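Reopening this one. Same input as before:
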Amino acid sequence: MKVSRGFTLIEMLIVITIISIVTTIALVGYKDYGAQLNVRRSANEIALAIREAQANALAVKGYDHDNNSGTPLLFTSWGVYFNKTVSTTQYNIFVDLDGDKNYDSGESVKTINILNGVKILNLAKGLETSETDDSSITRLDIVYQRPNPDTTLKANGATCSGAVISGTCPDLEIILQGVTGTQRTVVVWSTGQVSIE
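Same output, byte for byte:
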């Protein structure tokens, strides 16, 4: 009797088909996972930038706006500025040199780019509270003041309308979207708290 050792052509085709299906599923899932990871990373970077501005204000970090190694300005407010009409892929950390609680030209300390196809989809106020949702916002100014540890949140460069807490918005949202449609929302409260949803 002759014993056959090896694979038949049909067995080989079945194995190749199974490997191809598993590989395709893994590659498609990896692409989606990578896109979700990029959005999550970008949301965390925005939250860290907001925390950096808050820490600089609370630590009374001086700022030498002339870069001449002179005496730095103390008790300056620090903030983060978003303007989706200017760019949906970058934002600024700034020092409020004139004390108007708005970002003005020449106050930028650092411009941060949002990478990997993630963009600012929307800027909003009141999505987390009982306020009327307002998604028509194009500009946000988040400012941490010194010497008092106050937080000012402004939409479109002005104090928000509606119910006001200490002259500021109760909450502002930065909504990010990745290339596959994955979204994350960075929420900033008037108390200074920052959360990611």
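So the earlier flakiness isn't reproducible anymore. For the record, Residues 29-66+73-196 form one domain.
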